Amino acid sequence: MSTWPVVPAEPIPLQPTLAPRSLGRLGLAAAALLALLLGGPSAWALGWIGSWPGPLAAIAWSTVGLALLCNTACALLGTFLVLRRMSLLSDAISHAVLPGLVVAFLITGRLDPWAMLAGAVVVGMLTATGVQAVRQLAQLADDASMGVVYPVLFALGVVLLSRYAHHVDLDTDCVLFGLLELAALDTIRLGTWELPRSLLTLAPALLGVLGFLLLAWKELLAASFDPAMAAAAGLRPRLMHYLLMALVATVAVASFEAVGSILVVAMMIVPGVCGRLLSDRVTGTLFWAVLVAWVAALWGYALAAWFNTTVAGSMAVAAGVVLVLVVLLSPRHGVLVDAAHRLGTRLTIAGEDLLKWLLKQEPGYERLDSAPQGSVPPAEAACVPRKHCLEHLGGRWQARLVLWLLGRRGWIEQAWDRVCLTPAGRRRAWHLVRAHRLWETFLEEHLQLAPDHVHEPAEQLEHFLGPGLQQELEQQLQRAYDPHGRKIPKQAEEH
Amino acid sequence: MLKRPDSPQAEAEPGRQPPAGTGPGAPVLDVHDVTVAYHRRTVLWNVDFTLQSPSLVAVVGPNGAGKSTLLKAVLGLVPLASGSVRFWGEPLARCRRRVAYVPQRESVDWDFPVTVRDVVLMGTYARLGWFRRPGPDEHRLAQQCMEQLGIAHVADRQIGQLSGGQQQRTFLARALAQRADMYFMDEPLAGVDAATERVVFDLFKQLHAQHKTVVVVHHDLRSVPEHFEHVLLLNTRVVAFGPVQEVFTPQNLQQTYGGRLSALEQVAEALRRTEKTP
Fold first, then answer.
1. For residues A172 and A177, what is the distance between their CA atoms, to the nearest angstrom?
2. What is the pLDDT of residues B223-240, one digit of tens each?
3. What is the pLDDT of residues A231-275, one digit of tens each?
4. Is B52 a member of any domain?
5. Which of A138, A223, B94, B199 has the smallest number of Cβ neighbours within 10 A?
6. Distance (Å, whole) CA B166 – CA A294
7. Which of A224, A226, A279 best tests the B interface by mutation, with the highest count of B CBs <10 A?
8. What does the H/E/C string look like for B143-201?
9. Those residues with Cβ within 8 angstroms of residue B5's Cβ, 6 or more apart along the chain or in another chain
10. Quick check: B122 and A221 CB within 8 A?
11. What topology is assigned to A338-476 in CATH?
């Protein structure tokens, strides 16, 4: 017995169906490749530094340790700056604190770390307030007002420095690049411990950042996401803003001498950006940001040792390399995975169009399609030369890929140089015909499009109409014929 | 769907009526002579109105009439050039927790890496006070608010992956989680789908049934007579304020919108319809 083709009620996912599983695998593959590319060199760097002679390795570990402290503090704060879309403020503050340092030195007459810290925090806050004031009073955009405030303050610092304090060891080069190489050697005796002097500023700075995040987490989160609502609810977003600025200034100053402002700025922005690409939660973003900052510290140190160059500069460069890797390979938002998704969709559509085309090549198709239901024998499988298929697909490398993917799904068989629809492929093709005609009919009945205008949109949309949507369309239609007078295949009852 | 009589909120809330700290006879909301100026441009001029009892209030007026600014001024988010605002006879600082604000949807960054659940939980932050984190109670409350607005199934989605209507529902669920007595909403119906619109109007009704006050900046004049009790016609100054039946007249609307109101005729028709129906 034969019937007019009835489309079976097999579930069809709304997403393009040709290669969804391999795309999922592609995300995993990107993640694995990223882990390999980040972890491999890191492991190598650890092993290499570990193989150095004792005293040299000790200095290396202590330098890397200091960099880890600084990078962690910067990455944690920087993530919030990135999320709040004010990354440039880290740049502004880390430069603008210079006059604060100089004035603190002029007042105390010596390089007292606490006075310098106080001076820097005061000027840091002035920068944050100044940026806001300039924005409001001069009605400038955020970036412009920052660009106005911090060069002026930085230049003021340079002027003060060269006028009143040129004999002091407050070198502008040192401010920019730091001397991480020597930080581990510049030690201070504390009881029986011989500790790097920078540790005494970096460790409290990091503790301050951690304490702030732990204690004021929810206030900071609310203030960062929706300051207006936070203000209305009494969550003090303005206070959070200034606390954040004070901490940025503190960390900038604490890291200054050791690592320099270039690394501070790089570590405030790059890890946060990487973290956001790797996670869709704030905690995840912070986690990945810290990890990226650590990888950059390790790579940077190894790079500097290998090429015998500046450590802080190498770390900033390493951070840039990590950023490029993450942008390319992020499993969620990466360039490669995005491109693969687009390619997958394109191949799916090309493949489904080929199935329909193969169906229409079958000798019984015309009779089957125009005959009344239940009167015609089923179409015998007709095969098409592979060459014609490739021509129909445009003949590029993607065409071969489409045939291969269709074969893997079991929708076509390739024997010798011929391509045939399998029964599963034929069912799939009828599904598409049904989706196409439903949509054409809908466009004509409900949007009053002319019959010669409905084919193109239907051709696009047929690939995305799931069974649910098909049923809804069918219920809204009055006719069982499409605008060209052909029957719309029915869906079989579900068993 | 929303008006479940057995919903926990419906049972819990009437117990808080009348709210503690209310002076006898003190109006719910008293906006006295408020003027707001940005630079040299005056955005609000001597806005003065008093809401005696809980109500559903629509704030309508043309673009640039200062509707959003009025909400911000009432909530202390922009400085007042003059005037004062009192809630239940008290200044805002003493009753912030009883007031919830729903800003315009476009005012936040929807790429921010938080889930719907995270955002709704933010509604509970104000009650928790400093240093405390949301516990099981707060999570239950957030879940309940998400279910009430029909977004529980997207609770763990990053907010950028939501439709416009779902984003608006997320904001409203967050406000609901604040368990406030007065709600200020800035264009909660702008650019939402029909289903969300129904949900939002149902929410208004439900809040009103619990004797809450809801002040909504609204743009669709046609739905005002059906869904609101009071209306504030605003165009820098208050053109009219009062019950919808008395104030929402073609003459007042003409005065509010000047000659620019193309929907005027439709409104007049909508008014005639609502007059006939009861």
1. 9
2. 899 999 999 999 989 999
3. 999 888 999 998 998 898 888 888 876 777 788 888 999 999 999
4. yes
5. A138
6. 38
7. A226
8. HHHHHHCCCHHHCCCEHHHCCHHHHHHHHHHHHHHCCCCEEEEECCCCCCCHHHHHHHH
9. none
10. yes
11. Arc Repressor Mutant, subunit A (1.10.10)
